[in-house]
Known about the structure:
The complex is a heterodimer of chains A (about 260) and B (about 325).
Chain A: H1 2-20, H2 23-51, H3 59-79, H4 86-92, H5 96-99, H6 105-110, H7 118-130, H8 140-163, H9 172-186, H10 195-201, H11 207-219, H12 223-253
Helix pairs in contact in A: 2-7, 3-7, 3-8, 3-11, 8-9, 8-11, 8-12, 9-11, 11-12
Chain B: E1 6-18, E2 33-46, E3 51-55, H1 62-69, E4 77-82, H2 91-95, E5 98-102, H3 114-124, H4 129-143, H5 158-169, E6 176-180, H6 188-205, E7 208-212, H7 216-222, E8 225-230, E9 233-239, H8 240-246, E10 250-257, E11 269-275, E12 278-284, H9 290-300, E13 303-310, H10 313-327
Parallel strand pairs in B: 3-7, 3-8, 5-6, 6-7
Antiparallel strand pairs in B: 1-2, 1-4, 8-9, 10-12, 10-13, 11-12
Amino acid sequence: MIKTLSYLWALMMANMSEHTHQRKRLFVMSFFMMIQNTMFFIIWILFFQSVGDLKGWQLPDYMRLIGIFASSFGFCMFFFYGVRNIAYWIQDGSLDAFITRPRAALPALLMSASSPASLGDILYGPLLWLTLGDMPVSSLPWFLFLAMMSAVLLLSVLVIMYSLAFWLKGSPRFSDQLFEMLLIFTGNILHGQPFALKAVAFTIIPAGFITYIPVQLTREFDATLFALLIGAIIFYGAAAILVFNAGLRRYIRGSV
Amino acid sequence: MADPIIQVQDLTRTFRVRDKEARQGGWFSPAKTKELIAVRDLNFSIQTGEKVAFIGPNGAGKSTTLKMLSGLLCPTAGTASVCGLTPWEATQALSSKIGLVFGQRSHLWPNLPVKDSFALLAKIYDLEEGAAQQQTDKLIEVFGLAKFFNQYARTLSLGQRMRCDIAAALLHQPSVLFLDEPTIGLDVTAKALLRDHLNRLVQEFETTVLLTSHDTDDVEKICDRVILIDHGQKLLDTTLPKLHRDYRQTKTLRLTTEEECPVFEHPHVSVEARGDHTLVLAVDVTQVRMEVIVSQCLERFKLHDITIEDLPLEEIIKTIYQQMKKARP
């Protein structure tokens, strides 16, 4: 167990090492990511200023949603950007290097790349939570917990989406399209949306679990919703490992 | 004799590929495919410590075989055993017993100093700290890595990177080393250096080597046995000296003469090249003894220099392929 943790820590450090000698790039890209986020949220601020609320949701609710989303997304992309390479590496054979090691391929794959700009997303989350999200400093641990839960879910869903390349020959771009679709769903308000949309958002593209439920929990804690969130994390986490491993077996069979 | 470390029996791998020659249907009809045989009924075995070259033209099935032997691909039929394991059924277990080097891909982390990549690999292979350090020191010495061991991998030259890559593949002391085009893209000096290091490695660690390369110098300088394949089938499996012996039908005779335009005629000798004071002859030694030709040359010319060369391995391989092509129905 200790050896495994030490190995995972070493992988993480290797992944982060890119930033240690390119610190200027890390800070500049993170800063501009925060500026970019601000430009995007101004539109929503103007929107809420003119409509007041959206079926009971007000600006602070939405800012909490975006706060959780930004941090969880940033966390995934900063530490596990390798997930976005899975589909491409299946196609070009780069996956071979990960399979021919006496360790599970998935952790090494996930921690094989890092997006420097995503540090800006990680930091932007609590900033929004405390300012426009209208939450006290004492609620930060709660925010971090929800953001972490959301990040685990997001990462699991991304593993599934990018592992589809094991079955969809020659179309790694399709996984990118799914990724973009997930971002659109996750960053938008599902509250008061039609049933069909919610059905999609809680199954195929589980954006509802990634941001909507965590924000509902901040509005009013509900044990059922919390259990649903934990259940979704277990379900999608297990599904991600199963799908990836099934894909890997298919890859070795030479069917990819 | 001990059990072979690599044993391959009737190994076959086919792929279903889109048939480019067949008339494809419309948008909604399934694509017409055909079966492509990449490896067909391949049989061979390799003993511990052997250095075997696996050679053939592009698309011959070399890399497919290597992939199957390293557990990256299942065969369609046949069996194989590497270090007592069926590669595609025990990929992870096998990875501790083999080392893989693909000329085009690196095992090093580009953003880490080489020494940190080695430390990470030691964790991946779960090596004891002391043992890992001892092996690292040995590899630094054998491969001459000391000068750039603290450098970031992305700043290394291709030759340095390849030496580090091969050393990294040996950190966990594998019994078998698969080398796929290890000298591709290297200049002459870097190639020679790498071959020297590889030979030292084989002596030092008694590692079994299976090498694929298009460079016949790699084969001659590193290996002692050759397996020749084409269209997925084994054409020849022999030792390098035997290959030279069997296919040494022609020898090259290079003469530097006092005469400005030397001329030589013999029914079993062809003139390869002729220049000012030079003459290159190809002698068919199956028809005429070399000393006969040499003595005739000594009689006819005032010689400044004379050299006798064997047919280069590249020419031998070319000859074998031509013979096989003719023999094929």
